[in-house]
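Attaching the record inline, Q. Sequence:
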Amino acid sequence: MDPINLVVKPRFRGRIHEFSSVVAAFLILPMVLSVSGFKERLIILLFSVSITLLLGVSAIYHRIDWKIGMQRWMRQLDHSLIFIAIAATYTPIAVFALSPGSGKLILFIAWGGSAIGIATRFFFADISPKAVAFPYILVGWSLLLVASDAWRSLGISGSILILLGGIFYTVGAAVFAYQKPDPWPHIFGFHEVFHSFTFLGVSLHYFAIAFIVAPMAVS
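Structure, as predicted:
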């Protein structure tokens, strides 16, 4: 038997992202239609599709018992999509909300850092969970470099949503890195806790983009 299939997955492994990916898929069209202009819709489409792929691929990866070679490739794809989702989330913020200078800086850091992170994941496939988590946190908090501009542009509500979403993502990354807490290993383990925090982070950022950032788009 393939060794990867000897590991018993918790009953809820992948279920959270399975559910949320379906919701995200249904939200793609309404999100795109919420703005006008080709560039604006393309940016919102990028964000919406990236989030859907992040959740959907994660669900597929975690729900299926893959053979070793395919399992490794799916894991790399799963981890790479986290970088893309981070950069795609920052894109509408950078283009619609921030000043041109701050926006260009964040786009450069988010997409440049994500490209480096993705390349690292494929060249160093078996690095430790702690080494995996650190680049996500680094790229994910890059908005702090233009914190004052972001606060002015996003306002109190938008800033709080982005901040809390980032905190949830970071706590989730810490859970993944240290593999604790692991409450019910055969039902709802540390990875499900990680996915729960990811879901909360995605949800808060989705609200911020949908109700605060997207309305700032001017075609």
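The helical segments are 15-33, 38-63, 68-97, 100-123, 129-140, 147-178, 190-213. The CA atoms of residues 98 and 111 lie 16 Å apart.

More tomorrow.
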